[in-house]
Amino acid sequence: MKLLSMTAHVLQIIRRAKQPLSKTDIAAATGLSVSAVSEHVERLMNEKLIQISNIGNSSGGRKPKLYSINQHAGYIISIELGTSAVRVGITDFDCNILVSHGAPVDIGEGPEKVLSYIHSIVSEILDKAQIGKSEIKGIGIGIPGPVEFASGLPVSPPIMPGWDRYPIRDFWSRHFDCPCYVDNDVNIMAVGEYAKGLQFEVDNLIYIKIGTGIGAGIIYNGKLYRGVSGSAGDIGHIDVGKDVVCWCGNRGCLEALAGGKAIAAKAKDMALAGKSEFLLERLKSNGEITIKDVRMGIHSFDSASVELIRESGALIGQVISSLVNFANPSLISIGGGVAEIGDILLAAIRQGVYQRSLPLSTRNLLINKSNLGKAAGLVGGAFMTIDQLIINSIEKSDTLLDLRMKSW
Amino acid sequence: MKLLSMTAHVLQIIRRAKQPLSKTDIAAATGLSVSAVSEHVERLMNEKLIQISNIGNSSGGRKPKLYSINQHAGYIISIELGTSAVRVGITDFDCNILVSHGAPVDIGEGPEKVLSYIHSIVSEILDKAQIGKSEIKGIGIGIPGPVEFASGLPVSPPIMPGWDRYPIRDFWSRHFDCPCYVDNDVNIMAVGEYAKGLQFEVDNLIYIKIGTGIGAGIIYNGKLYRGVSGSAGDIGHIDVGKDVVCWCGNRGCLEALAGGKAIAAKAKDMALAGKSEFLLERLKSNGEITIKDVRMGIHSFDSASVELIRESGALIGQVISSLVNFANPSLISIGGGVAEIGDILLAAIRQGVYQRSLPLSTRNLLINKSNLGKAAGLVGGAFMTIDQLIINSIEKSDTLLDLRMKSW
């Protein structure tokens, strides 16, 4: 490994650690000598990429300095694009969201229109936060479909008409002089949760997003796993053996039975069938039932709403149990809009998993609600972007990070 | 990386390559300079771990020497233990099986009795092949249950009564002065197929063993994936939504419906119900129906046998389609005793997968019968063992491979 790439490697270790690290910690993690670590640390300090965070405990002599990423090293634009909404955030270099804004969007209007709209939101919040374009070091976007990560192109995204192989990166390069990276939305949520949401070390994590649709993001041995065609984690169309037609053309898909859209449709049916006064009232006053009404129903002790969520959780648990038998992960993290419903859903999912999974597979398994919640996507988008900036600096240039960052 | 571990790294690259490699090839694979590669190659040649295989094509000047593993560097004992049979083989250092022997065994008789019996087989074939104990460099065993790989201990193996945490390694150290490694049987089959069965480069492979039971071995990014508790790939108990009780206590497990035992039981039912003259005749003459009778039925154009295998393949295909959506692998390799039935089973599996998997997930997917067939376990056991010998030599000593091998 070249000297410079080892410096970048040290930077990755510092920023990926859960706590600030001493030079001895870094030496242990890299296998380098402490004096070699000192050189890399000095270079990173000169480049203002890391900072002295605080002074650690001493094992006798002088207390060691502890290093962490310098959050002021630059700003990242992070975008989480869904089928019907977008969230835009500006983060610092430690993935803290400084300002963010959400807005409804119809992804079916095509990339030019949707991206232009997102760009107007970005300009607005940059103005509001008084951050100049030149201070933006990278842009990360999560989209609701498979992505060829190396090129940043959407690949046959089934629910994004007009986006197939659309060059999203080129759009942003017209407006910003920094790299842009595109990934699947659930992937960046998984990355966010893994990097910043966990209080303990976990190597194998499956993040399950339960929103309108259902998807999974997979972290294996500390790295995002994308699969051969970039479609790994697409669990929404796994067969749960029920006779309901899905938009994909198949029958019995998990998403068609347990996703947010399916729950809302069933809630409407229940309201119309006179099985829930609460839901009927919501339907009358709004003309429609959404997942939010079901959530409200649960908080109002509406038994129909509870039943719907329990049914949904049981089906999701059934699919997760197969994944647990297959992949034997340490942690299942449940996120996405529907997951905000909380304990009733989580309990039903857990019950489904423990009923069907092999005892050995669940011996060390945790099934938790995402700690980052709604922030997972924006945090993960920023984390993925900084990761790529560092990796690209190793591959492309002989200065640290991208050449554009020389001024640091 | 230390010099010695880099030499071992070069050895791994040479032995894992599909063809003999030139120094330039090795330099490209490692990022080392050709002159640095030369040093490592010289050391490996001196230790007689590699050999000059043949002379390659020249791009102008002198034709380069090509290097491969020296198959004569030592012998490995490879053991594949099933619930009702064992196969023992002696391989050379390139995992070629030199001699092998299979025998029935009842795993329920417990480790002491079963292992002593296996030891008697080992002694017999060593005698027959005129190979001395001191020439054995390692022992590899695959067992039909989860294994804590680092310690070599079986972990709560459900179909191996009396084996839980039995120190299999210690048994062999009483008889042989070389390391022993224990892994799950499907894992070593996957390793064997990946290392020696493929004619092309594949990074993500799921090996499916269809025998009495059904299991999977997972290769991700070129490495065996074991999961957190060593139980990854345990797909036999995934729910396929049918009302049949499995020995595990759940209903609708894949194994209880599509495994070799289930097929034989259904075949017997069909024979007794008068649905197949062929199977009834087999039942009358043998008093029992096994999977072999069904296989013979297929070759005799017995439609009941064909139906059974198609049903089994469809259910297996249904489960594999979920795995394909989740893991998006490049290759599904079908092995195990029942897989020997061949094309009818394979066609039914493929049909099930293509019907339920997302188009993008199957775009680059191959579903093939295992190329190594019955040899996968023995080859994989040897490959895994040599892998560990090299890895341990890096961790434990400052001579190449284990200290015991100094004499080479």
TrEMBL record, chains A, B:
What are the BP-aspect GO terms?
Answer: D-xylose metabolic process
Tell me which CDD domains the record gives: HTH_ARSR
For this UniProt record, give its keywords in alphabetical order, as a comma-separated list: Carbohydrate metabolism, DNA-binding, Xylose metabolism
- InterPro entries linked: ArsR-like_HTH, ATPase_NBD, ROK, ROK_cs, WH-like_DNA-bd_sf, WH_DNA-bd_sf
GO MF annotation, one: DNA binding
Q: What does this protein do?
A: Transcriptional repressor of xylose-utilizing enzymes.
Q: Which family does it belong to?
A: Belongs to the ROK (NagC/XylR) family.
* Record-given protein name: ROK family protein
Which species is the source of this protein?
Paenibacillus naphthalenovorans
